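Course assignment 3, question 2. Fill in each field.
Student: A.L.
Task: Predict the tertiary structure for the chain below.
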Amino acid sequence: MNKKLILILSLFSLFSCCRVEDKLEPKLSFSAKEDLINSLKDPFMPLSEEEKKQDWAKEFIIAKSFAKELDLYRAITNYKRAEILLGEDNVYRKQQLEYSTLLCYYLAKKYEELIEYFERSTLDCVDKSFEPFHDLLIVLYESYFEIKDEEKTQKILELLQKNYPDSEKKIVLSTALLTADIEKIEEISKTPPENQQLLLMLDIYRKQKKSIPTAQALNAFLPGAGYLYIGQTRSAVTAFLLNGLFIYASYEFFRRGWTAAGIITVSFETGWYFGGIYGAGEETKFYNERIFETLATPIMKKEKYFPIFSLRYGF
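Answer field:
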């Protein structure tokens, strides 16, 4: 009885190790183009003729030109040079330079550098009187979200809700799509007025997605069947042949009395068998993620759900 219990627990433990979490991690992204950035107006006052004669302004003009061309690394360098030459007294221009540098980091998707720069800048104490305050919150929200700082992400979301409730709703939906939070997307889509486009997307996704437990169960019953379930014929054939070869070799070794060789072969087969179950689950998860990406990306571009589309100002 004890031996049977130990065997059952051992098998349960092995199958538990093969479990794949049914949580999608899609890769949805959008990179800004020149025409999008150049269509956004500058929130700051133009340089005066007197300012244009100063050294910091010359660096600023060069930086702005690089930024408009999305030559972001050169732009950051020149913005920082301008900041050094400007000094500390001109708060308005200092914040302009800091915000422009921050925006360059954001467009370059350098989120950690952005947060590090922001937290030692003068922008960490601005309020709604700061012209691009809305955009600053959008940039910070996405950056904290990307570096997985949940506390500060939530704090920025609360500021958006307080100051710009429409933008907050759009950002919540954007986050739900980026993280494939199906329940949240459905909840938002069913809130009047209903978003039929997103509801249709979810319906198509549910019809096309594959079940991870089913894929793993099929592969446990017949090695390779889980891969065949998601259309990976080559992987299915490889898994079937490898497992079949090791099972046959193990049988032959034990039949001929070559116990040591049989045990070694069985250990290899155990790895292939349970690895195949786990692999079938992982591949099914990837399969579902690609379906979601294919369905969600065009909608996010068309309806401008990516956070960058919420920006109101540029360089």
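Instructor remarks: The two ends are 75 Å apart (CA to CA). Confidence is low (pLDDT under 50) at residues 5-13.
Grade: pending
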